[in-house]
Amino acid sequence: MQTLRVKLLRDVASYLRRNCDFSYREDAVTSTAYPVDLAFTLEREDLYYRPKDADGLPVRIYLSAGRQYNPTRIAAYALAHYNRYLDHEDEADKATFFRAAEWFMRSPDGRWRYEFDWGELKAPWVSAMAQGEGVSVLVRAWYLSGEDRYLEQALRALEPFTQPANEGGVLSFLESGDPFLEEYPTPRPVHVLNGFLYAVIGLADLERIAGQVLPKGLRASDWLGVLTKHLNGWNLGFWSAYDLAVGRYGLRNPATVSYHRLHIAQLRFLGEWGSSDVLIAVARQWQAYLKSTVNRVRALALKISFRSLHKVPR
C-alpha cells in the first residue's frame, strides 16, 4: 500500500510538472542512436536498475513474483548505455552494453520469456515489446562488434511476431481484423500502444542499421500502415491512451505523462524514418496536448478514476 501511495504521488507530480522523461533523440534517424532517450534512467539508477545480479544486470522484485529478470528492463539498461557510449565514447558504457547484450544471447530460440505469471498471462510468456527491444539491442551489438551471431539471434527473435497469441506468439487482431503485436498477449488483448511501437522500432532497426530485407508481414513499413490506419483509436482528443481498452463505466485508460512522452518520441522516430506525414502530425498534436496544463490535469483526473476501478498486477 505504501508503494502504491508513493507511485500515485509521483504520478500526480509528473502530470502537474510535465516531466522530461523519454525524450526523442533528434539524431536517431541519421545515426545508430536508439530513438528514445533513456539517459534519465541512468541518472536515477537506484530507482530504475536496482537491485542487480552478479553480472551487474538489473533484476526486479515483484510483490506477486519476487525477484525476476524483466527483459524490457535489461534492454532499457543496455540501450541507455549504448546511447551514452555514442555521446562520450566511455569504454565502461560499451562493456556494460555488451554484458546486457549477452543476456539476450542466452535463449537458444531467441524468445525472452517471462518466467512468472502476470494477470491472465501464465508463465512462461513472451512480449512483443521485449522481443522488439531485444532486437534493437542485438542489432547494435552486431553493429559495434561485426559478429553475425548477434544478428542471427535478432532474426530468430522475430518468430513470435508471426504466431498468434494463443499459440505462444504475440500476434493478435484488432476489431477490424487487422493484425497487431501485443505487449501483453492475453486471451482478451487490450492493444497497448507503446509495446507495439517498441516492436516496430526493432523491425525498423533491422532494416536501417543491419540492412536486412525482411519478408512481407515483418517489415516495419507493413506495420506503419496498420498504425496509420488505426492511430486515432489511441487519441482521446486531449491526450493519448495507454491502450484501446474500455473499462468500467466506459472509461479509457490515459497514458501517464511519461508514457505520453514515450508515445511522442516513438511516433516521431517512426514518422521521420518512414516518411509518414500522418505520424509526424499526430506526434506534434500530442506534443501540444502535453504543453497544456488543462489537458494534463484532465488526464490526471481520468487516470485516478481509471486506477480506482481497475486493479493492476504488481
Low-confidence stretches: none
The fraction of residues assigned to DSSP E strands is 5-15%
Radius of gyration equals: 18 Å
Query: What structural category arises from helix and sheet content?
Result: mainly alpha
The number of helical elements comes to 12
Strand adjacency order, main sheet: 1-2
The level 1 CATH classification of the domain at 34-232 is Mainly Alpha
Shape: globular
N-to-C series of helices and strands: HEEHHEEHHHHEEHHEEHHH
Distance between the termini: 11 Å
Strand count, sense and closure of the main sheet? 2 strands, antiparallel
Name the average pLDDT: 94
Number of strands: 8
CATH architecture of the domain at 34-232: Alpha/alpha barrel
CATH domain fold name of the domain at 34-232? Glycosyltransferase
- Helix-residue proportion: 40-55%
Jot down its keywords.
314 residues, mainly alpha, globular, 12 helices
Give the topology, please.
Blueprint: H1 2-17, E1 23-24, E2 36-37, H2 39-43, H3 45-48, E3 60-62, E4 66-68, H4 71-88, H5 91-105, H6 128-145, H7 148-156, E5 171-173, E6 179-181, H8 193-208, H9 220-230, E7 241-246, E8 252-254, H10 257-273, H11 277-291, H12 293-309
Antiparallel strand pairs: 1-2, 3-4, 5-6, 7-8
Helix pairs in contact: 1-12, 4-5, 4-6, 5-6, 6-7, 6-8, 8-9, 8-10, 10-11
